[in-house]
Amino acid sequence: MPVTLEDIRTAGKLIEGRVSQTPFNRARTLSDITGAEVFLKFENLQFTASFKERGALNKLSSLSEDERKRGVIAMSAGNHAQGVAYHAAKLGIPATIVMPLGTPFVKINQTKEHGARVIVDGDGLSGASALAHELAAKENLVFVHPYDDDAIIAGQGTIALEMLGARPELDAIIVPIGGGGLISGIAIAAKALKPSIKIYGVETELYPGMYNAVKGLDEPAGGQTIAEGIAVRAMGERCVPVVKQLVDDVILVEEEMIEHSIALLLNIEKTVVEGAGAAGLAALLTRPELFAKKKVGLVLCGGNIDPRLLSNVILRELSRQGRILNFAVEIEDRPGVLARIATLVGEAGGNIIEVFHNRMLTHMPAKIAELRITAEARDVEHAREVIAQVRHAGFKVREIGAGGA
According to the model, what pLDDT value does residue 1 have? Predict the structure, then answer.
């Protein structure tokens, strides 16, 4: 094993007081929902809102004086970028970060704010990695890999020390997998401290890199995922053997379940996580039978989600719950009818969010228009009552699905 428990303990001492020892709390309501006893490790509360600070600080602290003067370069979709940029600035080390095209603006801006030179280029992490290696050779910079590095793995493993230090009775830990650095560090530490503990990895179905590696499969990887932090095709060479040896299984989760988990954590725990940060809860909800009545630790690995995307997730979740309804009403195009519809919706207890008044439907008479209404309801039953109220008043109503059809 390239990284040992002693390496991880040494990293823990090095980063102590310089990286937050984040809360690890029991989640009572989520425990009731899932049937497991759930404990949340709030790594989204780190200063840069991600666990990546741990490995970044451990790696940067290991550099020689000459390497520090030359400066470092990293490729990252955001969280590793911020961890490296923030701690490099604290240590006085010049930092360059290559971020792939499509990286959320919030992560780009926050990385720049930490003082790093940011280059946004490359198709995915592989494209950004190729450019970063090219620049490292050209400018004699030290390359800081986001996961395939012993010092990085050891730093991430300090999370397991804290989790088992606080809750030695844990039966299982669920860990999001990007390239494999986080789960490798956690698995090494946790299995050394408690060999009976189960370690489960989680990936989005769109990027099953580690799932393929450990199961000998070749499922396709690619597409737009809300969990861009774990949208990794190439697994770490150091990480795959560790996962094969120490991780009990890798669970794949659907995009919709990740969205649902983001919304649950926001509504119940009042905490903001990005897609990757919600993946552990998504795995628990996807495979509840694996964890029934077990004490399970979830790593909320990051909280850097674009506010617009978070808003969209919330609205989509409300729509799935039937709390956002969309419907079209055919009306006579004359004064007072719009006000009449609004009154009917209000009397039924609905709250109109948006109205689109369309007079250009050529398949309808010129004196007829269509109102497209988005309204808020308490639940599915209440949504039906709102629509029934409008229909009962004699209007022709057409319900519209979440996709707008």
Answer: 64
